[in-house]
Amino acid sequence: xxLINTLRKRMGKIVVAFVAFSMFAFILTDLFQxxxxxxxxxxxxxxxxAGTDVSYEEFQAxxxxxxYVFAINNGREPQAAEQRTIRDQAWNALxxxxxxxxxxxxxxxxxxxxxxxDMVQGNNIDPQIKQFFSxxxxxxxxxxxxxxxxxxxxxxxxxxxxxxxxxxQSLIQSRLTNKYSNLMGMTDxxxxxxxxxxxxxxxxxxxxxxxYVPFFxxxxxxxxxxxxxxxxxxxxxxxxYQREESRSLSYVSIPIEPSADDSxxxxxxxxxxxxxxxxxxxxxxxxxxxxxxxxYFRTIGDPSLVPTELVGAEPGTVSEPVLAAGKYxxxxxxxxxxxxxxFVKARHILIEMDGNSESAKAAARTQAxxxxxxxxxxxxxxxxxxxxxxxxxxxxxxxxLGWFGENGNFVQPFKDAVFAHRGTGLLAEPVETSFGYHIIxxxxxxxxxTYKVAxxxxxxxxxxxxxxxxxxxxxxxxxxxxxxxSFVATAKESGMQVRNASSIGKNDSRVGVITDGRAVALWLxxxxxxxxxxxxxxxxxxxxxxxxxGRQMKGTAKLSQVRAEVESRVLNEKKAKHIxxxxxxxxxxxxxxxxxAYGSEARTGSADLTLGSNSFPNVGFAPEAVxxxxxxxxxxxxxxxxxxxxxxxxKATTKSMTADQENYDSYKTTVANERxxxxxxxxxxxxxxxxxxxxxSLDNAVKEFAEIEDKRYKFF
Length: 716
Description:
By secondary structure, the chain is α+β, with helices and mostly antiparallel strands. Strands 6, 7, 8, 9, 10, 11 and 12 form a 7-stranded antiparallel sheet that branches. A 4-stranded antiparallel sheet has the order 17-3-21-20. It has a 4-stranded antiparallel sheet with strand order 13-5-15-14.
């Protein structure tokens, strides 16, 4: 930005001539390319869905349509983040149009005019209609409200009519999708073998004793992992490391933030406004005219929400300017009155009961009384709270509860005792609640005082000078970097933090810690190459300079991308062999000797399992070990075998495999219901319309059949 301004001032004629020449060269270059945009050869397709090309114009038309509906419903245009969501919704809508709707037509699925009327005014009212036209007093559906609304549509504004038509269309789409989903659901056959497997998973059970040595108990330094070993492992397990096409980069993100000079400017401004507020005759009007915030006049009962210097002050007192959350705030106490809700400031020590027995209750009460006696003798409340209170949310803060009101979220016996107390100090007795016994001290007495406060807020903002300086730093980094090595070196010399990001997909918007990095992702896929340094990206809250460091094509990941994971797995394989070799010299029945070999890190225990279990206590997720367990007979013991996080030895103590049944129909129903419950959203709208759901398996099948090729990354 700053560089461009300099060029404009000092080299205006040269720049104009250069731009003209560049445009001419671009035109000539384009003319001689096979995909010339001027000759109509450029690929404007954004996708291919079910054998049908989707043009950029068609996609953008859908985006514009949904953006229009959003604006109607929200009374404003969508912001950048919302626009990204709308583009995703448009994409889903196109999949619905191209992949789903042709299937509806082929199967003869339709929604008739009579059905449409029935959904809105008939005997089978759509749930959304019932929700929108319910009586606000009773919450019940009011058919008269629908009739009244429809009769008024002809004279309604065009925007309202358009919104209703869009809503009606969503009802039709939802009904079509439900019919299709129900039809497909009727063809989803559950086999007897599947039902039997469900029955066995729920009904078969066994108990095992286990001996477990976690990998972390073996020191990493005992082993070395070579490059060839990792390459060999990756080759042998390539199916586990399949990746979609992606990019990696290093980048510097310089936040666009107000400088100290900017802060001083705003502070000076609000100091002047504070003087004006102090002299203002109408506090509300003055605050409204001068505040950047919308909540410029407040009525507050909770003293903790009022600046300290205004509590107990005379009306007309103005607080000192305070900087918080990116803005300076000054407040004036306009008036003080009596409110309906009392507030009090207190702290407590909670002594929980160890169970529900009378003896547990008595023990807790005795401890609470003992602490109360210590406090009466001058003991420090904060120290006793830290040492004894069961309420860990404030124990280390002296048991401080701050200010709270009568309507606060406290149990009733606690509130009754606190608000019945007059003045300050310790309550005479511990207060019993469902949580235990509370020793309570009132720090500030009960008050009904309500504060009327005028508030002026001034947002901190970046001046042009600050913006230009930040841009200059980013521009210098880009200009002085030729490749990855020089980029990193230049950034470090300038005191800039270099971050790395990998696995960036074609349609990603997030790049590392950058949430609005869509422009960076577009550059990676359209213009970048390995070691190429970008120009400066001007994002919403930062300037970014990046260098592309890697390109992963679809297929098996490179070792450099998964090195840490592969190294860990190879290391664990060596640890597993080490543990097994050590256990091989010990009798299979001598558990004590096994445990002695590994000390405290080794774990023994027992577990009650069903065939559907997937974990062991103190071992963790280990479904493969459950399978091994059920392969054992009672009394049988395994040799040491490795799982994801260690080595395990199992011994079956009891085993009960349920007998076969003649009929598994109930389990067929269970499996079918579970399948139907796994649903996914196939479309949504930027309104409060119910999303369209279908079974996850059906959606996967349709999309696989459609052979979707997503090219949005070329344009957005």
